[in-house]
Design a protein that fits this description.
- With about 350 residues, the chain is an alpha+beta fold.
- It contains ten helices and 20 strands.
- A six-stranded mixed sheet has the order 16-15-17-20-19-18, with helices on both faces. Strands 7-8-12-10 form a four-stranded antiparallel sheet.
- Helix 3 packs parallel to helix 5 and helix 4 runs antiparallel to helix 5.
- The longest helix has 17 residues.
- The termini are far apart.
- About 40% of the residues are buried.
Amino acid sequence: MLARRLEAPALAGWDPDALVGAVLLGPVSVPGTTLRKGMRLDRATATTLIAASRRGELTQPVRAGWLEPGDLHEDEAAERLATVAAGQGLVCQPPRQSRLDLTARWAGVLHVQLNPLLRLNTVDSLELFTLFHGQAVAAGQVVASVKVAPHILPATLLEQGLRIAAEDAPLVDVRPYQRHQVGALAVEALSGTALERFEAGVRKKVDALGSTFAGITVLPGLAAAEARRALQTLALDRSISILLVGGVSAGDPLSPFYTALEELGGRVLRHGVPAHPGSMIWLAELGSTRLLGLPRCGMFAMATAADLILPRLLTGERLTAGSLAELAHGGVLGPEMRFRFPPYARDLDVPE
């Protein structure tokens, strides 16, 4: 980049064509308007600038830069980086104030490749910043932004960033909710009111995320034979995608429910998650069905870590024990963290 500081009296003697293509490195005020920093001057703006200088209306020096071979304007660099880093669930907005925003194409869950994102941001002058990984987002919401710090960037720096982004592309994406069948299984005796609250809470959450509630099955006790029959019907025969289970503790490995699960070929992926409320959630799989074990507070209309996990399951994500371990960062889920939850959960009660 060739950069020059042009004093107003000296600029009066310039030919406008000599300024065409120059990039303003700082804002410049002329009568009636302000030419913003980062603007690439065309002939009209160059003429306006020089005319103001000749009339004595330009009272400040002009700092300008010219692209040399191998240089890029900030907007072009940001657009190229966004094209590689962003997934299909994002829409690149036009550059605004030297920043390019990425908005969600649809409602869903934001996915961020955290380690590659960190590597990308260690490249000098390149900036890609996002909302939280795993956050529920709405269609049209700004979920990430790309910015290039200098107004003129050496192409070698951009190439470094593009290589990092391409290795793990996309670095940022929004996975849309899919239509799933979601069932509920209560394996402890519930009174009529409690059962109604459990069913109503599950139905509200499932409906809000665009899936179908397949009903609730209540087992009178925890006998392995009864649990096995219910799991056989719901998971293996009916192939319900997601089964929300209430009444089976993550802290009791001797529960007959786990015995029944194992006898049918299923397995628990993780007992408990590093988040509160909801630390006693467990995740299991049986055939193509994912089972999400809810703590007692999560069985009803309260906000817990289950309200971060369920949306991800409903995008079709095959969560693992490692996925749940990632909840530790940001796992203190007080009211101030409700912005990460789907809209249905933002006003729910907080368990004590």
